[in-house]
Each structure stands twice: as C-alpha cells, then as structure tokens.
Amino acid sequence: MSILLTGGAGYIGSHTAVELLNAGYSVVIADDFSNSSPEVIKRVEEITKKTVSVYRVDVADKAAMRDLFSHETIEAVIHFAGFKAVGESVKKPMMYYRNNLDTTLTLLECMKEFGVSRIIFSSSATVYGSPERVPIEETDKTGGCSNPYGWTKWMIEQILTDTAKADDTLSCVLLRYFNPIGAHPSGRIGEMPNGIPNNLMPYITQVAVGRLKMLNVFGNDYDTPDGTGVRDYIHVVDLAKGHVAALKYALDHTGCEAINLGTGIGYSVLDMVHSFMRVNKVDIPFVIAPRRGGDIAQCYANPAKAERLLGWKAEKNLDDMCRDSWNWQKNNPNGYED
Ligand code: UFG
User: Fold this and answer.
1) Which of 19, 64, 291, 328 has a CA positioned 20 to 30 A from the CA of residue 47?
2) Separation between Cα atoms, residue 71 and residue 65, nearest integer Å
C-alpha cells in the first residue's frame, strides 16, 4: 500500500515525501515537473535512503492517471499539484481555474473508480480572504479571496466538502497552510521559485546570495506593531509532519475536516529581516516601498484544532526557519541546477 503525492516533487510535496518515507510509508509521486525538477526525487531518495515510485504525468490527464492507479495500490492521496503564483493567477485566471480544478476532479474520479477513499488537500490560509479577526479559527468566515489562485483553493475545498457529504466512506482533510518557509536541515531540498520570487523568504535569501540587490518592504503603515505585514511563518518540515499526522487521522476517520497548519505566532516583515540577519550574520539591504495590492495587515492561525485532532504542533522556531532557508540557498544558489 502506498501514499500518492500529486505534485510530490514540489517544495511542500518533497518535504512531505521525506517525512512519509522516514515514517515507513511507501510513496508514489505524480508530477509533470512543470514547476519542479526530477533532481528533487534523487535528493529525497538520498536523504531517506529509500526509493520512490515516480510518474511523469499531468494530474489532469485522465488516461495517464488511470494507468498510475491501475499499476499501484494506493491507500491515500495527498493532493499538492496546482499552480500557486498569486500575481500570475490575476493575469491568467482561466489557466488557474482550468488546471487547479481539473486536476482535482480527475483525481477524485480516479479515486472513486479505484476504491481510494482518503484524501488530504493542500489548502491555504488564503481561503479566509481578509480575516475578520486574528488568530484565525477554522470556523471563521471563508471566501472574499483577492485573486483567482485563492478562489481555486476555496472552490476545491467546496468540491471536497460536497463529495464527502455525498459519500460517507470518504475521508478528507483540508490543510490550510499559513506561510511555509525553511528547508530540510540537510540543505538538499528547499524552495526554488521560477524567476523573481514573490514571497518574502525566497526574496530575502536571493538578496543574501547576491542574485537580487535589495528587498522591497511592501508598506510600513499597516495597523501592526511596527507597521509592516504580520504573518504566521511555519517551518516546512513541521508542515510536512502535519501531513503525516493528517494521514494517520484520515486513515481511521471519515468525513471532511478543515485544519489550520500554523504556529499561532505572527512575525512582521521587519522581524523576519532582522532575524535573518542576526541568525545568519549576513546583511539584507531593504527599502520601504508602497503596499502591494491585495495584501492584508495580519494573518496568523489558532492552531489548537490541529493539536486536538491530529496531535500535531509546530516545533521549530524562527531561528531554525532562517538558518535552514539560508543553508539551502547558499548551498544551492541556482536551485536544483547546481
Ligand atoms: N513582502 C515584502 N516584500 C516582498 C515580499 C513580501 O514586504 O518582496 C511582505 C508582504 O507584503 C507580506 C509578507 O511579506 O506582508 C508575506 O508575503 P508573502 O508573499 O511571503 O506571503 P503572503 O502572506 O502574501 O502569501 C502567502 C502565500 C499565498 C497564500 C497566502 C495565504 O504565498 O500562496 O500566504 O495567506 F495564499
């Protein structure tokens, strides 16, 4: 019996593959490598000293996915595959709706056909839109997303909720990630965005390594302690372990649960810059720039449900996140091309 990871060569998928293999599960990865590298698989195998079964497929390709399901015995699916760039989704909404929804529908159809009844979905805190309060609880209002990417996460949550309602054998966990950063402590796998990074930590590490000149801090007039945006940054290894815990839960429950994966602690952009400089002893030149469209002032989780239901909580702190992000970037200045 294996766990199928769609998009398993991506940033969060690859770290989850490592934690699953370390916990004794067999892993099958379905990935078209459109935003990742086959080199990731070699490194996952190197870290864990275990092998992974890999299918180079588009998860929306029904025939290819039926072929995968007929060759493997899949016990549960963790669905990471999807486009994830907020700005790009505003420019190419159809591409985002087509890809992110089609992959999910194809997967659900294959799961039904092959009798697979457990699914963990990569959702996001973005489903809360502009939150009414912090810390955010799972029962808080969702919707009001500021971009098509966010709406695809919201829509997929709805699809999975309705599917689980209609089929009482289905077990579904919607993991709402806050802001994943960091990398595996080995420095062998990490985040490698295409082109200029949109997210804060990869931008900081690329300034540190000299690929980018200066960080723009988007706004210092928010209603937060230092005026810069506050987020709940979570170490990707903690996040990956959250998937192992969610899988164990899904294996002996049915129904659909949305669960926040965050630390419950909010840090500002300036907290992040200063911690990164202190921990890694590198300079990060920055300027205060105008606010970025669609940004919210603060977003952090109440992570109590994850602890109650899954027995999981984040263990790594901000220093660990800064150290591991830098360790990855400095050892792989060109990502997987090194
Ligand atoms: N920021 C900067 N400069 C940068 C990049 C970011 O100041 O160059 C600031 C942002 O304004 C924000 C904070 O750093 O205050 C975090 O920004 P990120 O882009 O790293 O993350 P977001 O919180 O905007 O978005 C992330 C994910 C989305 C997800 C969302 C959920 O990237 O996929 O969290 O809340 F939808």
Assistant:
1) 64
2) 10
Closest atom, ligand 1, to C-alpha of 203 = 8
Q: How, if at all, do strands 230-231 and 74-79 pair? A: unpaired
User: Does residue 181 have its Cβ closer than 6 Å to ligand 1?
Assistant: no
Predicted confidence (pLDDT) per residue in 160-218, tens digit? 999 999 999 999 999 999 999 999 999 999 999 989 999 999 999 999 999 999 999 99
DSSP 100-138: HHHHHHHHHHHHHHTT--EEEEEEEGGGG-S-SSSSB-T
Q: Please write the tens of the pLDDT for every residue from 256-279.
A: 999 999 999 999 999 999 999 999
Atom of ligand 1 nearest to the CA of 289: 7
pTM of the model: 0.98
What one-letter code names the amino acid at 162? D
Round to whole Å and give the CA distance between 254 and 40: 33
Q: Residue whose CA is closest, atom 28 of ligand 1? A: 126
Rg, Å, the chain Cα set:
19
Mutation test residue for ligand 1: of 122, 153, 232, 269, the one with most atoms within 8 Å of CB:
269
- The answer to whether 325 and 183 are in contact (CB under 8 A) is yes
CA of 320 to the centre of ligand 1 (A): 19
The residues with which 256 forms a beta bridge, in sequence order, are 172
In angstroms, what CA-CA distances link 169 with 25, 117, 325? 22, 6, 40
Which residues are CB-neighbours of 324 under 8 A, at least 6 positions away? 182, 183, 184, 185, 187, 190, 235, 237
**Side-chain-facing half-sphere of 169: CA atoms under 13 Å:** 6
Q: Would you place residue 338 in the very low, low, confident or very high pLDDT band (cuts 50, 70, 90)?
A: low
